Amino acid sequence: MKAFSIERYGKHSGKITDVPAPAMGTNDVLVQIHAASVNVLDLKLRAGEFKPILPYRLPLILGNDLAGVVVSVGADVSLFKPGDEVYARPPQDRIGTFAGLIAVDQQALAHRPRNITMEQAASLPLVALTAWQVLVETAQLQPGQKVLIHAGSGGVGSVAIQLAKHLGAFVATTTSTANVEWVEALGADVVVDYTAQQFDAVLRDYDVVLNSLGADVLQQSVKTLKPGGQLISISGPPTPEFGETQGLPWALRQVLRLLSLRIRRAAQAAGVRYKFVFMRSSGAQLSEITTLVESGAIRPIIDKVYPFQSTADALAYVEQGRAKGKVVISLR
């Protein structure tokens, strides 16, 4: 089958090659991929930024989202059958959706929403699960609470705004001038144009911050939280607790301790909690998201769709950091 894979780490590595069809286990579902989407995670994996904590074997097929049709199932699969239309974020140790086929553990899959296309479905799993695991699982966001979602026009931000509004929260977000009206239409109550204002100068007493940006924004975000608030980052730095859950060696956990020391100290001094969330696959949570999509509470946002032959161009576009919502690769 055809797949877009990297043979070495590097910002511009990767090409379409012929690779063997995936091997299947008894709990696996073989899916013919109709569409996949590009995430910033793909860029970081390609560049080798996660080598210490995610030791993949090269060559590596990139891709962390999929929508497609079940071709066959393993002997112990009970949740899906051939012909089912599904979507998923595969488990982290078995990614590879920029390809014709993928074998996915049945626990990571969900039936795709019936009211959207394959391309729209492929745009959702990683970003929607990230938003869910930050806002519902970690923050336990309640109606009436105030949440600041950075980069509201991005993949995670555009879904997180919609999810937070569904949960009954008051939502602030940051974006550029060109996207202010666009994120307001998604439901944001307050929009800070970062080209004209410093968000930490105008936002105060928030319960939760979802950070997907760099260290400077992370430090500034502490000022926007009220005592007891939660600063949750999906872009790092990882904490020692994350290292423990990943089963990382003691020495590497100490590195994470040093990397996160500054922000953990700042959070402690302000009386707030800092947490790092590294999104994981979950078919059960994705089924909850399916219900929200079918009810209209969440709608997928797609910026561009590229043909599979132009996967490298899709990655380059995402790397520019200007996409509104998600960039999708069509394999049909």
UniProtKB/TrEMBL annotation:
Keywords: Oxidoreductase. PROSITE patterns: QOR_ZETA_CRYSTAL. One of its GO terms (molecular function) is oxidoreductase activity. Gene3D superfamilies: Medium-chain alcohol dehydrogenases, catalytic domain, NAD(P)-binding Rossmann-like Domain. It is an enzyme of class 1 (oxidoreductase). It comes from Pseudomonas shirazensis. Residues 10-329 form the Enoyl reductase (ER) domain. PANTHER family: ALCOHOL DEHYDROGENASE RELATED, RETICULON-4-INTERACTING PROTEIN 1, MITOCHONDRIAL. InterPro entries: ADH-like_N, ER, GroES-like_sf, NAD(P)-bd_dom_sf, Quin_OxRdtase/zeta-crystal_CS, YIM1/Zinc_Alcohol_DH_Fams. This is NADP-dependent oxidoreductase. Its EC number is 1.-.-.-.
